[in-house]
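Reader question, answered in our methods column.
A reader sent in the components of a multi-part assembly and asked whether the whole thing could be modeled at once rather than chain by chain. We filled in our standard form and ran it. Here is what they sent:
COMPLEX SIZE: two components
ENTRIES:
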Amino acid sequence: MLPFSIEIRPGLPIAEQVLFAVKKAVVTGQMRPGDKFPSVRALSQELRINPNTAHKVVAQLVEEGVLVTTPAVGSVVAERALGDRRARAELLGPELERAIVEAKKLGLTAEDVQAAVAAHWRKLSDHTKP
Amino acid sequence: MNAIETTGLNCRFRQLEAVHSLDLTVPAGSVYALLGPNGAGKSTTIKMLMNLLRPTGGSARVLGVDSLQLSPAEFSRIGYVAETIDLPEWMTVGQFLNYCRPFYKKWDVELEKTLLQKFDLPPARKIKHLSRGMRMKTLLLSVLAYRPDLLVLDEPFSGLDPVVRDDFIRGVLEVSSLGNWTVFVSSHDIEEVERLADWVGLIDQGKLKLAEKLDSLQQRFRRIEVTRTNGNASSPKKPVHWLGWEEAGTLTRFIETQYKSGETEKLCADIFPGAAINAQPLPLREIYLSLARGDSQKPSSALR
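And here is the structure of the entire assembly that came back:
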């Protein structure tokens, strides 16, 4: 079993989808620093994807500092993977883009959207308070 | 090096030109999917590559050797699963594997055992008593066990249920070792292909319409939706690389085949001043359909 959850959808490049799923798992704590990350082979077989794609995913995660590779051990989640808030905020990219497109269709301005986000944020925070 | 290379490959059956001047390049290490409707010339192409059919023109090189000169040395590096599953009906699965084994120096007995288990195949059962899916798996096992450098699969998924299909793909990936392992697969099953392939070739009426890396294909195709603020649906001058034009009310929808982030939006803004523009990526199935349809109305330059 893979240590992160993903459902591959047609349309978007597979590598992007897997990258996103892994980063999300790291941010949400599904995968913790030091956790072993599946090999290229395992990744390709479990997800039924091209091994070249799986290789690309791992290489990209290493480059972005999410994974560290140690010879003979394989890849593990890095100590300070996606630690800073900016890296985390970047994960919102696709969702934000969708929201902004919708907002533009509705003829809203950036201020309208910010106000709506703030209002929504408050609403949800109130719910989660004990 | 390229695993497969054809130049001006032709195949004519009397009046019918099944394959017309095909220039195909399959880079080593790729998973190359050949897509196309029934009767497009996919199987004919594969048969010529495997030297089962003599081309009436042009030539093909497979693993660096002219297809007409392919010898046992090359065939022991090629795994070919034909669309017609011809197996010795009277043998059991075990007997069939015993029969295949001595032909290949690289036959991996451990892998054979692993696959036999993974594929859930009964070694003692006669092949004539196997289902279609089991026959397909038996055949696949017999070509995977010697870890071929080039795997050629002709319509491997047709008629397989989802479980068998999954086993099949797992089996194929089982022998994958990065870099030198090439798969050439003809298929209708676009969803599977989208996961596995890194190259896509589109063939229709014996001609190669398109051959491109899957990522670049996904990069340049977008469904564009334009919502005009002013209601007049005047037909503007549209570039030739916009396909499948549809209009309803204030909404215009089409497929951009040359998408460049920013540039396309600017072009749209010039043509539709003040309109809201939305660009969505397309699944391979939609790309395939838009090309298949677009081609009947548009010049083929739109495909490039």
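What stands out: The CA atoms of residues 20 and 36 of chain A lie 18 Å apart. The mean pLDDT of chain A is 84.
Send us your own complexes using the same form.
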